[in-house]
Protein 1
Amino acid sequence: MERSNATFVMEFILLGFSDLPDFQRLLFGIFLVIYMNILIGNGLLIIITKTNPTLQTPMYFFLGNFSFLEICYTSVILPRMLIDLWTQKGNIPFLSCAIQNCSFNILGVAECLLLAVMAYDRYAAICKPLYYPIIMNHKMCVQLVIASWITGIPGLIGLTYQIFSLNFCDSNKLDHIFCDSPPLLEVACGDTYQKELFVHVAALFFVMTPFLLILISYIKIITTILKLPSTSGKSKAFSTCSSHLMVVGLFYGSGSIVYLRPKSSHSAKSDKVFSILYTTVTPVLNPMIYSLRNKDVIAALKKILPK
């Protein structure tokens, strides 16, 4: 396919919710409240996991890091989206779009990997209780967190370069709420099959590999729990895993629908809905899921919050 119509794109236009002009201010208010809740809720989890003596365990160390990651993850998307809703303009410079895309992908992969690390922590605690302090010592915990953050960086920088080295000739308008890979590939001209294949392979590797590790961990956890003699022991073991499983289900469920379904079944509206789900709903529910189902977190929150 010839690329005679190709032009160098200086900026993209994020259409976002431009099809709902009468609701821009209302949507701004809703997402502002959501963003503030994400910052406050996850911020509180970070504070209590760092300062409360009873929460100085690997599980809460990972939870504090996960909450920090949630703040970073949403801060790549929501502030920009709030500006677009307020100004009712979706213009974003080419370089800013590339940085947002790369940052979003890196943080998304880090979240997948950290969820896998948290599943491994639960596996070690339940299946290897006698060796747990040795396996999950502080040095190992720090190394696992660092590995979660940096593992995807080289590959995802390469993926971003591959996408933004394409020619964009048909339009610079992205029918999405941020600079995500699928809508960028849709407005690129020429044969984008190899780039799309690269995106799907990257998604399968960086998303499904941690998911399989989580699945294997929980198969072994459930097998071990079912062998416990006492009902109270089974109940306590399951309760330590239920919050993590809920977060995994929310994040992976919505993310897989967007990135792993066939291109023929994509629609702009459904992509926006699922993108909102895994970029805002999961981070805002994370503190509530962990605090409402965890007595230690509730007790720690009571100590720092006014009655």
Note: The two ends are 67 Å apart (CA to CA).
Protein 2
Amino acid sequence: MAWVLKMDEVIESGLAHDFDASLSGIGQELGAGAYSMSDVLALPIFKQEDSSLPPDNETKHPPFQYVMCTATSPAVKLNDETLTYLNQGQSYEIRMLDNRKIGDMPEISGKLVKSIIRVVFHDRRLQYTEHQQLEGWKWNRPGDRLLNLDIPMSVGVIDIKTNPSQLNAVEFLWDPAKRTSAFIQVHCISTEFTPRKHGGEKGVPFRIQVDTFKQTENGEYTDHLHSASCQIKVFKPKGADRKQKTDREKMEKRTAHEKEKYQPSYDTTILTECSPWPDTPTAFVNNSPTPTPTFTSAQHSTYSVPDSNSSSPNHQGDGTSQGSGDQLHPSATIQETQQWLLKHRFSTYTRLFSNFSGADLLKLTREDLVQICGPADGIRLYNALKSRSVRPRLTIYVCQEPLRSIQLERQHDATNGDNSNGAIYVYHAIYLEEMAASEVTRKLALVFNIPLHQIIQVYRQGPTGIHILVSDQMVQNFQDESCFLVTTIKAENGEGFHIILK
């Protein structure tokens, strides 16, 4: 008769010790080269399952398990992810366990698999700026790595590789049929990535992630099999032990009712299944930086000013418009979002936002964008997304004076008493972001479709009809919302125009 025991029933019946002892005996019979089954079954990975359910409805069985041999914090609420404290530079064992059922994945039986262990940021904002954060850490700690493998203590790992451009990752090959333990050392501490304010700031959480791949037909280990990760915080030496003790003492002071809201502290940390890290495992072979999410920090300062061919924050000259076409819509596809970024001079971040649709990008807050792109470009991108433009320093209205022949015709009609063709003057608004004569010239060229290089000079008609050269000082003394009639006079040599403001 086959007996199925649930772990909680075993514990409640007081049979846990005998049950574990019997499993240990079975494990010993499997041979010294493998872990005993108690190494797996003693861990908090089992969920209560209804034995009446058919096998097809069972939860998907992961092919591997990764177990970090250090205790979880007791100060974690029931529905939250476990948190484990580590000491900087201390070696911690991660057991690589073959969790396949009989007949599962026969293609890897007797073959090696490759695993990549990484320490990455838990916080999404820091994930976006990972490259910048790690470059800053590298600058302060030249020659150091965030993650190392303690090779003398590790068991069953072969062909160990590290990439100088990936200080937070290490890879190796291992045989699932043999005992394998990777001892890792994390050299960065959580407070190194916390903005310093008044002292005593909380450190940021990290993640330990393991991605495992099998060999493809071409001999490369690029076929993903399994990924799992756990949340950690790293303290200075012995700091993790003090933090664990503090959490335990706090829990002991809580009432029994309050304790029910928290998880117990487990002796080991199970890495839970997750999505594979968005990085190709061939990065180590090619010695190329991680394509995602490795982002380049813009080194130049930029400001939220309209493009050079724009005549105003919200309008362009006749025939073109900066209206809805320049605004990113939530319905924009990934390709349209990339084109929008390129058009608005955010080409540095097209790779970063390579999987973002318009809706994804518009959901980011100002703080998110500052974290991702830095203060200068982050604010500029936020303003562009929200269609925020620089308020013009001066607004003037211009109208092109009717041609001389038309004026004479209308004067003749007026003499004959025909006023039906009275002149209608249509003005164009020009918004100046700079109080300079060159800005006036450029905007006039756009409005009246005159090539900028063909405008020889701009004058203002003064008293008694004299022509006064428009200078920066004159523009600075224009009254806001002044109105001008514009006359263009062709140069005597036929090359270029003079413009007169009346």
Note: Residues 278 and 292 are 6 Å apart (CA to CA).
Protein 3
Amino acid sequence: MATQECHLTAWLVTSVAAAILGSLQVGYHTGNVNAPAKIIEEFFNQTWKDRHNQTMSEHSLTMLWSVSVSIKDLGALLGCLGVKYLADSFGRRNSILIVNCLSMLGAGLMVASKTMEAFEALILGRLLFGLFCGLVMSLNPLYIQEVSPTLLRGAFATLNQVAFASGILLGMVSGLETMLGTEKLWSVMLSLSLVPALAQYLVMPFCPESPRYLLIHKGQESKADAALLRLRGSPERVLVELEEIKSEAAHAKLSVGICEFFTKRSYRQPIVIVLCINLGSQLSGFNAIINYSTRMFQTKFEEAKYLTLGVGAVNVIFTLVAFFLMEKAGRRRLLLIGFVFIALCNLLMTVVDSVVHLVPELGSLQVLLVFCLISAYEVGPGPISWFVAGELFDQPGRSIAMALASMLNWGGKFLLALIFPPLLKVLGGYCYLLFTVTALVGFAFTWFRFPETKGRTFEEIAEEFRGAENLPLHNKNGFNTFS
């Protein structure tokens, strides 16, 4: 177990803060299209009318808007494919800076679409921004975990989700009609992500590269030592951590190919864990509520957009709760709590939805259940699903593992965005039972197979997986963990 003291330095805090500016952009463009959807749809329709002297059919307009929204997630899926090449070729920090240009280019196209009177530019811009999403949501936790001390690794990785949730809330606020979600200002609303993008270019070039990347991938011990000294501030801490990195390097190959990644014996258990935790998290109903919260509330409340803001606020608050609990409660316990409460909330939403037409007052209870479900998701499954792959794999396989986790996360979002509307139409409130089952499967898998990684160095975790095909997950108290 790691015994070094937690010690914050200015460079460590700056490096983490600079990295999560990318996640803030991702969240912003996730939340800002919800409220002004009708206004942007009208822009699509008017553009089509100016070109063809006729309006689009309602079906075609709905399909075009659905493509516009979901193409970001499709782009993110494609972007994940480039994570290993960028991270291992250019380094973790430099890769974040490289992909930031996709964000700026995508945002620029979205903003210009109104002036150009070309909805195609907006769709292309969201596709490019989607590529950025897939890359940066893998690279960020990868960089943050590799520059963070062991005892703060999970908490700092959770800040990636805090920034993402904060971006969603900012996007929701900016999309209100009383803010920038108007016919005149919606293009300005889309431009605001350029602010953190520019800030990242101003700050991150001065932050240190991942010491693990420098030593294990590049063999540059002197540069790794200098980077660690900036991050830790103490030669004694640097010496201890440098020895740990060297120990990991001694057991690790320089690189692992994709085929070897999926066939290597010591990677089998981690791959199964990443698959189950990520799919259980993404298919538990959270993303359906985030994407369609305004429409869900509109059927029962006049001020649905402001209730959706409540969704965003709860989202941020409980990612902060996860940040403070991550290194105290541990990953495993937070996952168990999160999954069981998500299942309970989905079950109760099914019951409430089936009787709300008889007792309209239960609509308020439904809103409360939505807030509770989001709280449960963000306390555990939400943030952990994005970074746990980085903890379970050694240095050669870590970049591929993060790409796999990101693909599962974005794939789950994309799938749910496509199937939730028809599911809701066909099954009504009973569709939440499917999410209940998914969450219960996630809970069961976590209970029986998920090992605790809190306080473990990367080398200690990798050594456990190298030791045997099946992990010794039970300690003397019967609580699943590394022994």
Note: The chain has a mean pLDDT of 87.
